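Fold these two proteins, one after the other.
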Amino acid sequence: MYRRSWSPGLRSLPVALAQLATAAVAMAAIEIVLFTREGVAPLAPIVAFPFVGLLYLAAGAVTWLRRPGNRTGALLCWCALAVLAAAAGNATIPALDGAGLITAELPIGILIHLLLAFPSGRLPDARSRWLAGGGYAVTVGLQAPRYLFAGGSAPAWLTIARQPTVVRAFTDLKQAAGLTVIALAAMLLLGRLRQASAHQRTSLTSVAAYGVATLLFLTLSANLASVMHISADTLFAAQLVVFAGVPGAFALALLRGGFARAGEIEELGAWLGAGHHDQASLRTALATALGDPSADLLLWLPEAISYVDAYGGPVVPPAGRGTVEIQAGGERVGAVSYDAALIADADIVRKAGQVIALAVQREQLTAALRASRARIAATADAERRRIAADLHDGLQGQLVVLALQAGQLAAGRVGAVGTQAAATDLRRGLETAISELRALVHGVMPALLMQRGLPAAIQDLLDHTPLPSHLDTTGASNCLPAAVESAAYLVAAEALANCVKHAGASKVSVQLARTGGQLEILISDDGCGGARAGPYGGLRGMTDRVDALGGQLHLASARGQGTQLRAEFPCG
């Protein structure tokens, strides 16, 4: 199962459980053989005692395997060992009899622990821990006088002295303390019930009610039996039957209740902390935690205003499915798409989303970077295709014609009268080809930019812009990295083109400034404003160019208030 690979320690869990089961079955078998051979009475309930321990073990093993990160299964297995140890007290062998007396009440202490720790198997607060500790103190600590001062009814190696008065006093104290712990635990559980969701309350109520009723019955049954004149054998059988129902109640509620995935979500958090995980493994872990194989992880891309996959491709949440948004730092970073018919409680999905929010944010940034690189690659590819088409359809054809003309002149196929005219045509053709080649090169990378730097190249752009313009180069420098110069020039060219085509501006200004290790270029117009970056288009391309160099692009374009575009490039 995938969940067992989340944590290295969980990989050995099936082996450990198999070893534990083997030891427990062997212990139960030895006890049953001893009870049968010795003919202890009442034989049937006492022989059934070890089987109750195995019942706890089976429920604990199933729960532990299904919810490895939940400690309820471990507690049930611990209770199974305590039951088997308590059952050993019915044997006549002194060592087993002593072990049984010491652990006789321990299963009740573990039951208190189980109730307080349900459903995660972990004690959630200080009150729970104090009450659980109190339960163990009552069932183990206050049990000691029963064998230390019991005299002949306990093995000699455990007895200090025969003090029946002390035994009776501690028995009464133990019952009073036990009832106090049970009452306080019941009040604590009632408070949790009020805070539980409606979907969880049914399962939590059934477990709490059965557990508290079992504890009260085990604590008070001896008193009730004396009042109702019930024999000790019948009482023991009734206690055994009631106690045997506990593991089934806990296991069923945990595996089927509204909080069945609490442990899985905790495991998901532990798995995330183990190291970096890509979206594919994150999606698989999420589906496992939710118990929904169809659960999917969607990444939110703000600039695209849509959900995307790991590679930045658009994704539409399927209709008819549940969708829960994932936020990190108050910002939407993704969503979980799940089968609403399978998972009735959206809170479980929301909690899982909170656990993976930071990992999703990392994947979101990675997807945005991949999408940006893909757009840059697509833009570069489109530019190469345009250059290739211009060369093939224009310049290459002209050069072929000029080569034929030159060949005719060289071969003397043109008469003396026509030689001068043919040479003139050839020269004009070459001048045209050179002019087109220069324009093509200028479109790719202006010669002025390479020769005189960014300020001069931008001034040339403004000179060719049909709008009144102003350039401020205070603090600007020509000593810039080539990549920064190229990107800044292309951003300025695209922004000025937008001013002319879309802004309806009457003037435009450009400011260049270099402060420390950063170049800032600010293009402002007094147009209509309202510009916004979409998933495609010029603004998207500018953002990609700036991001590729580790810079930032800021756009301020309120309607009716013009547009300001500021690009910042690291150039230290």
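Now the second one:
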Amino acid sequence: MTNDLGDLATRGTAIGGRVSSLGDAALAARGRVPDELLDEVAAAADKATGRLRLSARHTVVAIAGATGSGKSSTYNALTGLELSSVGIRRPTTSWATAVVWGSEGAEELLDWLGIPPRHQTMRDSMLDTRREDGAFDGVVLLDLPDHDSTEVAHHLEVDRLIAVSDLMVWILDPQKYADAAVHDRYFKPMATHGDVILVALNHIDTVPVDRRQAMVDDVRRLLAADGLPDVTVLPISAKEGIGMAELRAEIHRRVQDKRSTTSRVEADIAAAAGRLEAAGGTTSPRELPAQRTRELEEAVADAAGVSAVVSGIERTVGTKARAAVTWPPLQLLSRRDADVDAIDDDPRISPLDRPTVDTAIRGLADEAGEGVGRAWASHLRSAATGRLAEISDELDRELGRVDLGGRLPIWLNLVRVLHWVLLAAFVGGLGWWGYAAVRGTVEDLPEVAGLALPLVVGVAGLVLGLVLAVVARGMVGGLARTRADEADERLRSIVHQVLETQVTKPVAAELTSYAAFRRGIAGARP
């Protein structure tokens, strides 16, 4: 899966980087947050890049308001034309109208906005230009349907154009500025768009002069409660011309600043990132500590009885190895190794303590889940605990196949045979010499270096047997520990491999995915 958000028009730009980061976050969130939300995020990115592809010269300014707010009279006053009907009853058309200052390059933008030609007015093509001073050059001024109209088509048209306008001018009425319809439906959801919103409190001429500032302050208070504390609020009267110069100047300033378009795109991307973050999680990412993984492996090894088996191997191999290299007469005289033959020379791993394994894995999943957003938590738990039975079965199977190395090496058996040969030489030589001594025929025995051969054989068997015992005992000193260490390494390697494949890697993958999501969210914001 790839990040498909973004466009050639924005690549290599700051906005392009934010769009790409939003795409990275959406890609990481795929399968963890609802597809409907991801579709909304993709639509927001497409809309943002689509707007940036179009005329950079023009700024789309939408005039929005409720029935009776004086929206159309404000629109007419700004354009210097009588384009929109005014009065209590508004036209029933669901189309917005547009006036364009500077028509060059505006056709594609108007088509993208969905404004039909019959609702377009090119201001620079009109004969009457007496009221034009060029201040609005590059402005596409939209008069939207009433947002509180009973016509569903009007609502849809307002929502559609509000979503694509570079600058929104909301006209409020002194008697209805606190109406929940505008605050809940538009202002609160657009808390991230404060830089591209202006509010004009119309009909200010109907408010006593000494109450006007208090009313403006109350509007600002309500906007702050909506999450828009810095929005400019201008008291105006389109009918009497009060504040219209200030409104025109503010629109002119925004247009000249050339920031409205990019600010709107940035706000859209930030808002999409906010919605995605709310669904995916706001906590900081984390990694699965190596120490925690080792603790899990140690707990599972204990549940399999690895330490007990390893100790048994060391004890078994040590006992049998020492017995194999001990001088047979000394071995027969010692009761310490009387039960050597009874020792099991093939140690086996015990059946797995499955409840302990399950508890250890669940504990790791719970701890790791504390560092991810809620959308990832269930996936992380599933990654760790979704195959508990299979994990235990695999551990039992693989641990049972391990060669624990309990049998003695062949050379120890050869030492044992050689011991008995030397013992036989010792007993045979002394017995031969004793027999000759009893019969008085010692002088007749063969000699070696002046000594009777039987005596030489007997003494040599004894000396060599003892020397062999000492040398061989030194050689087997580390054998038991080595065998135990090798068995421990093999058993723990199996535990590590199974847990890494079935638990730690899936958990780490979820944590990595969440970290990528958080990086994408951070990168999508200005």
